Structure formats: structure tokens, C-alpha cells
Amino acid sequence: MATPLKRVRGLGTARHGTETFWRQRITAVANVPLVIFLVLSIVSHIGASYGEVKAYLANPVVAVLMLALILSAAIHMRIGLREIIEDYVHGEGCKIASLMLVTFFAAIVGLASILAIVKISLGS
Amino acid sequence: MTKKLEVERPLSPHLQIYRPMLTMMMSIAHRISGASLAVGFALLTWWLVAISLGPEAYATVEAFFASLVGRALLFLFTWALIHHMLGGIRHLIWDTGAALDKTSIEVAAWLTILSSTVITILIWVAGYALQGGQ
Questions:
Q1: Distance separating alpha carbons of residues B92 and B73, to the nearest angstrom
Q2: Residues of A contacting chain B (CB within 8 angstroms)
Q3: Spans of all domains in chain B
């Protein structure tokens, strides 16, 4: 029989405890100012030329904030999409495949965005 | 054996039993907006990659975003983003244990719907104003 203490030490069935819950909250809090920053960035550059947009993104402060947004949003997205799949996809094979797909998707869009921002920052 | 148990096990009332409630719809809307933002993320990635590739690639993305379909998609993503953000702030407040009584939940739901719609429209009005009404 598992005592409450034993359960706490084992950190539950998934052995991760509340790590995912906590990570979802941390990224949620980070996303709020970062998303406002993204919206302001886009709205203020409507109709701007290619050069202007590129120069804006090459600014180190802008680049770091964009990188932070990409990282935080990708982690947050992965957790949220997995939660939806875990709730609605019941076939074991289909579930595992979807969960993997979500991780790959988050990694691909995250990495591609990061590479793009780094490339723009280095001006190559 | 497992099958038999599954059949005979009493089931709790499921989704279709309940009369749709605002808070229930808000919960679903939070998930739908969140899931749709995954597509929005892909569009953001496309935009960033295009900028890193050069003026020609950027022109293609710009043309898509300027099209009617592009604009409609961006409007919906703006709304999903703001709705999900405000809904998320609501969840963060609930995480502290505050505002969980029936009245507060209803008020928060309406506030989220109204403010997300108003903010989305304001963002687009600002966008069109800055663009010079094109």
C-alpha cells in the first residue's frame, strides 16, 4: 500500500509530479507580455518595407524577446496539445503517434523560427 | 471479462446530457483557441523564415497575408490569441484559489468574451489606421 509520503516521493504514476502543470503555468505567465510584444511589433510594422521589418527583428532586444516567445510558446503549445490528445484520443497506437507528432511539430516550428531569428540577427 | 465490465459499469452523465452552459463553452473555446494557435504558430514561423530567406520569399508571405483569405485567417488568429490569453489569465487567477464562486465565474466568462472581441477589433482598427486604410 502506498502511503501519501511514498506517493509524494515517487512523484505519482507518471513520476513527474506537478512538473508539467507548473511548466504550463510558467510559460503561460511568460507568454502574456511576450504575446503583447508580438502583437505590438506586428501592428506597428503593417505596411513596412522588407528592410524595415528585417532591421527591426535584427535589433538584439527584439531578437531576444522573439526567441523567448518562440521557446515559451513552443513548450506551452506542446503541453496543451498533448493534454487535448490525452483527453480525446483513446486508441493506444493512435494516441502515442499523435503525442509524438505534437512533439515533432513543436520542435520543428520552434527550431525553424529560432534559426530564422538567429539568421536575421547575424545578417546573413 | 474487461469488455463485460466496461459494458455493465455505470456511466456518469456525459457531455450530451447537460444543457450547454456558458462556462462549459468557455472551457471548450479555450481548448479550440489554443489548438488553432498551433496553426497560427506555423504561420508565424513561415513569416520569420521568409524574412530570413530574403525579399522574394517575404513578398510571397506578404501577398498571402494581404489576400482576403490571409486577412480572415489573421483576424481569427488574433481573436484566438487574445481570447486564449485572457482565458489563460482567468485560469491563473483561479490557480490562486480566488474568484471561484458562481457569480465570479460567470462574470469572468463574459468579461473574457467581450474584452477579447473588443481588443481584437481595436488591434485591427489600429492596424488599418497605421496602414492608411488599404
A1: 28
A2: 25, 28-29, 31-32, 35, 38-39, 43-44, 46-47, 50, 53-54, 57, 66, 73-74, 77, 80-81, 84, 105, 109, 112-113, 115-117, 119-120
A3: 38-131
* Domains located in chain A, CATH noted: 20-122 (1.20.1300.10)
Q: Which of B82, B83, B77 is nearest to B109 (CA)?
A: B83
| Burial class of residue A74, CB neighbours in 10 A (0-12, 13-18, 19+) | buried
The whole-number pLDDT of residue A18 equals: 82
pLDDT value at position B2?
A: 54
Q: Examine the pLDDT at B63 and tell me if it is beyond 60.
A: yes
Hey, are the CB atoms on A74 and B34 less than 8 Å from each other? no
Is residue A95 packed enough to be buried (19+ CB in 10 Å), middle (13-18) or exposed (0-12)?
middle
Q: What is the pLDDT of residues B30-44, one digit of tens each?
A: 999 999 999 999 999
Cα–Cα distance between A59 and A63 in angstroms, integer?
6
Q: ipTM score here? A: 0.89
Would you identify the CATH topology of the domain B38-131? Answer: 3 helical TM bundles of succinate and fumarate reductases (1.20.1300)
